[in-house]
């Protein structure tokens, strides 16, 4: 979609992150996840939690968080690059190698 209608572009967005994690480092990934929940909220987002493997694939984890708009999310992404707490979370993931890869998708929620 080239240019979404303005009403959709300005609407709340929810980011879905699908992680491929090292199944031997789930505890380390959980530590990493717990670092990010307050950081997303510090930058104006609402974190809906991380979801770790229970049944089925043992190397897939998910995260969901929302921002008031895609613009607010982009501001968070830029500002997080300069934040010392965010830098510590990035460094922890790099040091432990608990995250092998990830992909982000964006959704607009529908409510009653």
UniProtKB/TrEMBL annotation:
NIPSNAP domain spans which residues? 18-110
Give the domain of life: Bacteria
Q: Which SUPFAM superfamilies match?
A: Dimeric alpha+beta barrel (SSF54909)
- InterPro entries attached to this UniProt entry: Dimeric_a/b-barrel, NIPSNAP
One Pfam short name: NIPSNAP
Protein name per Swiss-Prot or TrEMBL:
NIPSNAP protein
In its UniProt entry, the species of origin is given as Paraburkholderia caballeronis
């Amino acid at each position: 979609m080239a240019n979404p209608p303005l009403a959709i572009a300005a609407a709340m967005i929810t980011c879905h992150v699908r992680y491929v994690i090292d199944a031997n480092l789930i505890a380390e990934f959980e530590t990493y996840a717990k670092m990010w929940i307050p950081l997303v909220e510090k930058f104006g987002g609402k974190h809906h939690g991380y979801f770790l493997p229970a049944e089925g694939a043992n190397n897939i984890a998910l995260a969901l968080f929302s921002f008031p708009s895609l613009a607010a999310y982009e501001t968070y992404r830029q500002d997080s690059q300069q934040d010392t707490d965010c830098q510590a979370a990035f460094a922890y993931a790099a040091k432990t190698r608990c995250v092998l890869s990830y992909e982000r998708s964006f959704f607009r929620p529908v409510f009653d």
